[in-house]
Amino acid sequence: MPWSVFAPAWLARSMLRWCSQDPSRLRSRRVLCHSCVVRHLLVVDSVRNIMLVDVIGNLRMPIGAPLTAAMRSQVTTAVWSAQGQWTAWSVNSVEMDGIREVRLHDEDSDLASVLVESVSAFYLCPSPCGRWLSHLSPGPFGLELAVSNIATGAMHVIERGQPMFWSWSSDATQIAVHVENRVIVTDHDGGSTRLLTDVAGSFITPRWLAGGSVLFAIDDRIMAAGPDDSLTSLVAGGSMGRFALDDESRHLAYVDTAGDSAALVVLDLVSLTPTQVTTAPVIAFFWSPDASRLAILSAAGDGQVQWLVAEGSNIHHLQPFHPTRTWATSVLPFFEQYTESHAVWSPDSTSVVAPAVDDQGGTGALIQTADSSGHKQWVPDAELAWWA
């Protein structure tokens, strides 16, 4: 295999570190020097190993030692830390004697290690600062939300129960958790806890607003609880509880059922003015890192889905595609939680990526330019893929 297709991981990663700077704000990923553009995807391939893919140079780089068939285990999910210091992935097995653990790859040392043993984590979420990794796994009393210290490996179980969804505060000192019918705020080590509500609706994930307020849903309302526990109703009725907040805390996208049919609405949180974006059947929606665009995944018929990219009053329709089964069943139903940790948008807010199936049944990462110019790129052999 030529060097340009399967390059040493340390070389590509050292190039990435050399070109990158610390991000100036949460979810900005990394700011690259103008003379060198490096764009990577974090990929779980068809045999369930983890790869870092340079989509410009067509380089595929394994992260850590690949799993073999004899190990009877596979990578189920992976995540890149918010500032690019490390990559974490979960190894699980259906066999009794298979490997079950969370592994970590440090970018500075280029070394991989086991962070957590005997845990079947199926979702991973890094803290904004990169000091901790939160993870969700089944336990004897329901689902367990735990936080592991990246430096020491020490783990604390924060909450037990289900459903279980959560959001890190921007300074990583607190976690807002939706567990069962409660919404609570707890310290990152599970210490001090305060209850926001015990009548939470069937929404997914709470989100933090700038200033320390927490968004959550009660029935068909979307509420904001302030640091002093004061409650403000942002959406007074008609909400399905599906919402996404942009990184600037300026716009809230949500599904509204108050009219004759469900519609996707964007609420300006400064003027509190709602604007209807589309009445197309919405599956998921994701804000771009610079908050200028909203990528809306819509049903397109015949088992296909399609990105609708809203930019101001314009909507760009991208080419329909068939999503991979894993992405469609394990990620999209919980897209609000994945916006906390996994990026479908490129760091420069110009492209979206989705794990897709081609005409021959092969899986790959479909990268599409968000301006509907028709430009696309296919990265083969990807069951799951996100921007790193």
Please outline the helices and strands.
Elements (H helix, E strand, L loop, with lengths): L8 H11 E2 L9 E2 L7 E5 L5 E5 L4 E4 L11 E7 L5 E7 L8 E6 L4 E7 L5 E4 L5 E8 L2 E8 L5 E6 L3 E5 L5 E6 L2 E6 L5 E5 L9 E2 L5 E5 L2 E5 L5 E5 L3 E7 L5 E6 L6 E6 L4 E6 L3 E6 L6 E8 L2 E8 L2 E4 L4 E2 L1 H7 L3 H4 L12 E7 L5 E7 L6 E5 L3 E4 L1
Antiparallel strand pairs: 1-2, 3-4, 3-34, 4-5, 6-7, 7-8, 8-9, 10-11, 11-12, 12-13, 14-15, 15-16, 16-17, 18-19, 19-20, 20-21, 22-23, 23-24, 24-25, 26-27, 27-28, 28-29, 30-31, 31-32, 32-33
How would you explain this protein's 3D organization?
The chain has 388 residues and is mostly beta strands. It has a domain at 282-379. The chain is built from three helices and 34 strands. The protein has helices at residues 9-19, 325-331, 335-338, and strands spanning 20-21, 31-32, 40-44, 50-54, 59-62, 74-80, 86-92, 101-106, 111-117, 123-126, 132-139, 142-149, 155-160, 164-168, 174-179, 182-187, 193-197, 207-208, 214-218, 221-225, 231-235, 239-245, 251-256, 263-268, 273-278, 282-287, 294-301, 304-311, 314-317, 322-323, 351-357, 363-369, 376-380, 384-387. A hairpin with a 5-residue loop joins strand 14 and strand 15 (174-179).
The parts where pLDDT drops under 50 for at least 5 residues are: 1-36
| Strand order in space, largest sheet | 5-4-3-34
Tell me about the largest β-sheet: 4 strands, antiparallel
Helicity level: under 10%
Summed over residues and divided by their number, the pLDDT gives a mean of: 89
Secondary structural class: mainly beta
Strand content: over 45%
